[in-house]
M73 family metallopeptidase
Amino acid sequence: MNKRTTRVVGFVGSVAATVGLLALAATGTGAYFSDTETGTIKGTVGSITVNADLDVDLGTVLPGDTVSSATTVTNTGNSPVDLWVSIPAVVRAQHALIDLNVNGTNVLTADYVNVGRLDVGGQATLPVVLSVDSSVDNDSHGALQGLNLSTGYKVVATQINVHPAS
């Protein structure tokens, strides 16, 4: 090998070694630090369960009468609940002639009306008050005659701040 070839080979070898060292430096040594922590996730799926005696007998009501009774609702689930009352549309349609309040709230104003909140294990007595307008006469009485207030009457429990129709 002549001197010139030796120099070229030496130069090419030096360049290759330099490029290799630069590549190694750019990618690091392959060592890194790490740390791992472990833990557990705990939770229970809540339940919404209520027991209620919804049979309310208001008897016979005449114009000008106000009658009342009560129903009791108990939260037997493991989550607090909002209580809603739903009255059938046929009854709500008579709102001009009657007022129906549960726990102080007129329940003839919407499909579902919020009547309170009940904590876990809590029990609430919901007063039910029916008033018939004193202006009801024979002409308007026909709309009320035989009106069954219990048709579809229900109490719905939902998780807090959730509307039953959601």
Residues 3-27 form the longest helix (25 residues). Strands lie at 50-53, 66-75, 81-86, 98-102, 105-106, 113-118, 123-132, 154-159. The first strand starts at residue 50 and ends at 53. The domain at 50-159 is CATH 2.60.370 (Ctag/Cox11 (Pfam 04442)).
